[in-house]
Amino acid sequence: MEPTFVVRRTGNRRPSHYDQFEATELYCPRCRQAMPVRKRLLLVLPEGDKYEYRCAACGTTVGDKIERNGEGVRLVLP
Fold first, then answer.
1. Is the pTM of this model over 0.90?
2. Long-range contacts of 15-21 (CB under 8 A, 24+ apart)
3. How far apart are CA 55 and CA 28, in angstroms?
4. What is the pLDDT, as a whole number, of residue 35?
5. Is residue 46, in this structure, part of any structural domain at all?
6. In this structure, is residue 24 part of a structural domain?
7. Per-residue confidence at 5, pLDDT binned at 50, 70, 90?
8. Could you tell me if 49 and 41 are in contact, meaning their C-beta atoms sit under 8 angstroms apart?
9. Domains held by the chain: number
10. I want to staple 50 with a disulfide (CB 3.0 to 4.6 A). Which of 33, 43, 54, 68 is the partner?
11. Domain that holds residue 58
């Protein structure tokens, strides 16, 4: 008798605890080791906010990230 596998789909939704990851340490090429980072808002784009990660010790940019928001950008004109 062959084993039976049941696969349940929950739709396209991912569990909420996997929505966003936040970096606390990244490798810094200048310091040559994993260092704590600071997250800084760089740009506000139509597809989401772009952040950059900088080494807390030397200030070198070590990465970036776009946080996609669920709603589009609305322009309010006078």
1. no
2. 20/67
3. 7
4. 96
5. yes
6. no
7. very low
8. yes
9. 1
10. 43
11. 38-70
Query: Strand, helix or coil at 17?
Result: helix
Closest CA to 62 of 16, 31, 20, 17: 31
Q: How far apart are CA 53 and CA 57, in angstroms?
A: 12
Q: Do 50 and 65 meet the contact criterion of CB atoms below 8 Å apart?
A: yes
Q: Which residue has the tokens 């928001």?
A: 69
Distances 59 to 4, 25, 26, 73 between C-alpha atoms, Å: 54, 13, 12, 31
Tell me the per-residue pLDDT of 29-74, one tens digit each, with 9 for 90 and over: 999 999 999 999 999 988 899 999 999 999 999 999 998 876 655 6
7 band by pLDDT with thresholds 50, 70 and 90: very low
Give the position of tokens 């609305």. Answer: 74
Enter the DSSP assignment of 55.
E
